[in-house]
Amino acid sequence: MKKEIKEKMKKILYYYKNKLSKIRIGKANTEMLDDITVEYYKNQVPLYHLSSIEVINSKTILIKPWEKNKLSVIEKSIIKSNLGIIPINKGKLLKLVIPSLTEERRKEIIKSNNLKLEKAKISLRNLRKAYNNKIMKEFTEKDLIEKSKKEVHEATKESIYKIEKIFENKNKEILKI
What we know:
Largest sheet: 4 strands, antiparallel
Radius of gyration: 21 Å
Low-confidence stretches: none
Number of helices: 4
Mean pLDDT: 88
Structural class: alpha+beta
Number of strands: 6
Protein backbone atom coordinates (compact mmCIF):
# COMPACT_ATOMS: atom_id res chain seq x y z
CA MET A 1 0.00 0.00 0.00
CA LYS A 2 2.90 2.33 0.82
CA LYS A 3 4.34 1.85 -2.66
CA GLU A 4 0.93 2.44 -4.23
CA ILE A 5 0.36 5.78 -2.47
CA LYS A 6 3.89 6.97 -3.31
CA GLU A 7 3.26 6.22 -6.99
CA LYS A 8 0.00 8.18 -6.95
CA MET A 9 1.70 11.09 -5.18
CA LYS A 10 4.48 11.01 -7.78
CA LYS A 11 1.85 11.38 -10.48
CA ILE A 12 0.40 14.44 -8.73
CA LEU A 13 3.91 15.94 -8.47
CA TYR A 14 4.59 15.22 -12.14
CA TYR A 15 1.27 16.77 -13.19
CA TYR A 16 1.96 19.91 -11.10
CA LYS A 17 5.53 20.25 -12.40
CA ASN A 18 4.29 19.77 -15.95
CA LYS A 19 1.64 22.50 -15.48
CA LEU A 20 4.25 24.96 -14.23
CA SER A 21 6.70 24.15 -17.02
CA LYS A 22 4.18 25.34 -19.62
CA ILE A 23 3.93 28.84 -18.16
CA ARG A 24 5.40 31.57 -20.33
CA ILE A 25 8.08 33.37 -18.33
CA GLY A 26 9.81 35.47 -20.96
CA LYS A 27 12.05 32.65 -22.24
CA ALA A 28 11.50 30.49 -25.29
CA ASN A 29 10.30 27.04 -24.27
CA THR A 30 8.64 24.51 -26.58
CA GLU A 31 6.58 23.08 -23.70
CA MET A 32 4.44 26.21 -23.62
CA LEU A 33 3.05 25.12 -27.01
CA ASP A 34 2.12 21.58 -25.88
CA ASP A 35 -1.54 22.43 -25.18
CA ILE A 36 -2.15 24.14 -28.52
CA THR A 37 -4.30 22.12 -30.90
CA VAL A 38 -4.86 22.76 -34.59
CA GLU A 39 -7.81 21.72 -36.75
CA TYR A 40 -6.56 19.09 -39.17
CA TYR A 41 -9.15 17.42 -41.40
CA LYS A 42 -11.96 18.20 -38.93
CA ASN A 43 -10.00 16.86 -35.93
CA GLN A 44 -8.15 18.76 -33.21
CA VAL A 45 -4.51 17.66 -33.35
CA PRO A 46 -1.63 18.83 -31.13
CA LEU A 47 0.58 21.41 -32.83
CA TYR A 48 3.68 19.26 -32.40
CA HIS A 49 2.06 16.53 -34.56
CA LEU A 50 1.83 18.90 -37.53
CA SER A 51 5.17 20.68 -37.39
CA SER A 52 8.68 20.81 -36.09
CA ILE A 53 9.15 23.23 -33.21
CA GLU A 54 12.61 24.60 -32.55
CA VAL A 55 14.02 27.04 -30.01
CA ILE A 56 16.48 29.33 -31.83
CA ASN A 57 17.55 31.45 -28.86
CA SER A 58 16.18 32.46 -25.46
CA LYS A 59 13.48 34.65 -27.06
CA THR A 60 12.64 32.92 -30.37
CA ILE A 61 10.80 29.77 -31.43
CA LEU A 62 10.42 28.61 -35.04
CA ILE A 63 7.49 26.46 -36.14
CA LYS A 64 7.87 24.66 -39.49
CA PRO A 65 4.66 22.87 -40.56
CA TRP A 66 5.00 19.57 -42.41
CA GLU A 67 2.31 20.79 -44.82
CA LYS A 68 2.77 24.41 -45.93
CA ASN A 69 -0.97 24.91 -46.48
CA LYS A 70 -1.54 24.49 -42.70
CA LEU A 71 0.58 27.55 -41.84
CA SER A 72 -2.39 29.94 -41.54
CA VAL A 73 -4.44 27.44 -39.51
CA ILE A 74 -1.51 26.99 -37.10
CA GLU A 75 -1.09 30.77 -36.89
CA LYS A 76 -4.77 31.22 -35.97
CA SER A 77 -4.56 28.47 -33.34
CA ILE A 78 -1.59 30.15 -31.67
CA ILE A 79 -3.40 33.49 -31.60
CA LYS A 80 -6.54 31.87 -30.12
CA SER A 81 -4.50 30.04 -27.46
CA ASN A 82 -4.14 33.13 -25.20
CA LEU A 83 -0.38 32.73 -24.96
CA GLY A 84 -0.03 36.44 -25.48
CA ILE A 85 2.26 35.91 -28.47
CA ILE A 86 1.52 36.98 -32.03
CA PRO A 87 3.25 34.71 -34.55
CA ILE A 88 5.19 36.26 -37.43
CA ASN A 89 4.39 34.51 -40.72
CA LYS A 90 7.58 34.08 -42.78
CA GLY A 91 5.91 32.24 -45.68
CA LYS A 92 7.25 28.74 -44.94
CA LEU A 93 7.42 29.00 -41.15
CA LEU A 94 6.14 30.89 -38.15
CA LYS A 95 8.41 32.82 -35.86
CA LEU A 96 7.38 33.40 -32.26
CA VAL A 97 9.22 36.17 -30.43
CA ILE A 98 8.69 35.82 -26.69
CA PRO A 99 8.20 39.25 -25.09
CA SER A 100 9.70 40.06 -21.71
CA LEU A 101 7.27 39.96 -18.81
CA THR A 102 6.13 43.11 -17.07
CA GLU A 103 6.23 43.31 -13.28
CA GLU A 104 2.43 43.21 -13.20
CA ARG A 105 2.32 40.07 -15.37
CA ARG A 106 4.94 38.39 -13.16
CA LYS A 107 2.75 39.00 -10.10
CA GLU A 108 -0.30 37.59 -11.92
CA ILE A 109 1.64 34.43 -12.84
CA ILE A 110 2.83 33.95 -9.25
CA LYS A 111 -0.75 34.39 -8.01
CA SER A 112 -1.92 31.79 -10.53
CA ASN A 113 0.92 29.46 -9.48
CA ASN A 114 -0.19 29.84 -5.87
CA LEU A 115 -3.68 28.60 -6.81
CA LYS A 116 -2.14 25.63 -8.65
CA LEU A 117 -0.02 24.90 -5.57
CA GLU A 118 -3.09 24.87 -3.33
CA LYS A 119 -4.94 22.56 -5.73
CA ALA A 120 -1.98 20.17 -5.75
CA LYS A 121 -1.81 20.19 -1.94
CA ILE A 122 -5.55 19.51 -1.75
CA SER A 123 -5.11 16.56 -4.15
CA LEU A 124 -2.36 15.15 -1.94
CA ARG A 125 -4.42 15.59 1.22
CA ASN A 126 -7.45 13.97 -0.40
CA LEU A 127 -5.27 11.04 -1.39
CA ARG A 128 -4.05 10.78 2.21
CA LYS A 129 -7.63 10.82 3.47
CA ALA A 130 -8.67 8.10 1.00
CA TYR A 131 -5.79 5.87 2.08
CA ASN A 132 -6.48 6.47 5.76
CA ASN A 133 -10.06 5.34 5.18
CA LYS A 134 -8.78 2.30 3.30
CA ILE A 135 -6.43 1.49 6.20
CA MET A 136 -9.30 1.69 8.68
CA LYS A 137 -11.34 -0.78 6.62
CA GLU A 138 -8.54 -3.25 5.90
CA PHE A 139 -6.81 -3.51 9.26
CA THR A 140 -8.15 -4.33 12.69
CA GLU A 141 -4.95 -4.25 14.73
CA LYS A 142 -4.55 -0.80 16.35
CA ASP A 143 -0.73 -0.75 16.13
CA LEU A 144 -0.80 -1.62 12.44
CA ILE A 145 -3.42 1.05 11.76
CA GLU A 146 -1.35 3.73 13.52
CA LYS A 147 1.87 2.63 11.78
CA SER A 148 0.18 2.66 8.37
CA LYS A 149 -1.43 6.06 8.98
CA LYS A 150 1.94 7.45 10.05
CA GLU A 151 3.56 6.15 6.84
CA VAL A 152 0.82 7.76 4.74
CA HIS A 153 1.21 11.02 6.66
CA GLU A 154 4.99 11.01 6.13
CA ALA A 155 4.60 10.33 2.40
CA THR A 156 2.11 13.20 2.16
CA LYS A 157 4.38 15.54 4.10
CA GLU A 158 7.33 14.65 1.85
CA SER A 159 5.29 15.23 -1.32
CA ILE A 160 3.99 18.59 -0.07
CA TYR A 161 7.58 19.63 0.69
CA LYS A 162 8.66 18.66 -2.86
CA ILE A 163 5.74 20.50 -4.42
CA GLU A 164 6.54 23.65 -2.41
CA LYS A 165 10.18 23.47 -3.59
CA ILE A 166 9.00 23.25 -7.21
CA PHE A 167 6.77 26.28 -6.56
CA GLU A 168 9.60 28.29 -4.97
CA ASN A 169 12.01 27.50 -7.82
CA LYS A 170 9.46 28.46 -10.47
CA ASN A 171 8.73 31.76 -8.70
CA LYS A 172 12.45 32.56 -8.47
CA GLU A 173 12.68 31.91 -12.20
CA ILE A 174 9.70 34.18 -12.87
CA LEU A 175 11.02 37.01 -10.72
CA LYS A 176 14.50 36.86 -12.28
CA ILE A 177 14.76 39.76 -14.74
